[in-house]
Amino acid sequence: MFNLVIFGPPGAGKGTQSAKIIDKYKLAHISTGDMFRMHISQNTALGQKVKQILADGLLVPDSITIDMLEEEVQNNPDATGFIFDGFPRTVAQAESLDKFLEGKGQKIDLVLQLDVTEAEIKNRIAERKKVSGRADDDEDKLIKRIDEYFTKTIHVLPFYQEQGKVVKINGIGEVESIFGMICAAIDEAK
Ligand code: ADP
């Protein structure tokens, strides 16, 4: 079992690198952002509840997010490990994830921090908006999401740093060279 958190601001490249990691290491991918977008597109009860929150670039309440995530882990009993993408985004989420995994005799093995400057993420998301059509990639919503990151999510880092689990990766450069650094960190932690 190998459980990994991929961490970084919006637009850091979490999705891109996650896809490559899954392919190579055969981990199950859980992206809370993708899950919320799926609920919204299928117009489920959960989707209706969170639609406006996502459109506003705000964080979904912890209780909703944690329940959804735990259910998804339980739905993948055969997974040999998980990559958590976009979760945990608050210290309360990180604490509950630790407790949840502990109850299953598991833990987080590695936290990859993709380090990218604010100027770079703004550029990237402006580019992504042209193809993604994501309403929350609009500039005012983006500012809100970056704000949520720097006020709430950033505190998740010291939580894992105290456990000695964080490896910082420079997220600016070629996709392949960033992936090379990620693989080195995973191979070392495995
Ligand atoms: P990005 O990292 O590019 O901002 P995500 O796809 O990870 O995008 O998340 C999109 C939105 O989904 C967030 O802005 C937030 O509204 C919601 N969301 C995703 N994960 C969480 C989480 N762990 N806690 C609360 N809200 C979340």
From TrEMBL:
Residues 31-60 are annotated as: NMP. Keywords: ATP-binding, Cytoplasm, Kinase, Nucleotide biosynthesis, Nucleotide-binding, Transferase. HAMAP family: Adenylate_kinase_Adk. One of its GO terms (biological process) is AMP salvage. Consists of three domains, a large central CORE domain and two small peripheral domains, NMPbind and LID, which undergo movements during catalysis. The LID domain closes over the site of phosphoryl transfer upon ATP binding. Assembling and dissambling the active center during each catalytic cycle provides an effective means to prevent ATP hydrolysis. The gene is adk. The lineage of its organism: Bacteria, Pseudomonadati, Bacteroidota, Cytophagia, Cytophagales. One of its GO terms (cellular component) is cytoplasm. This is Adenylate kinase.
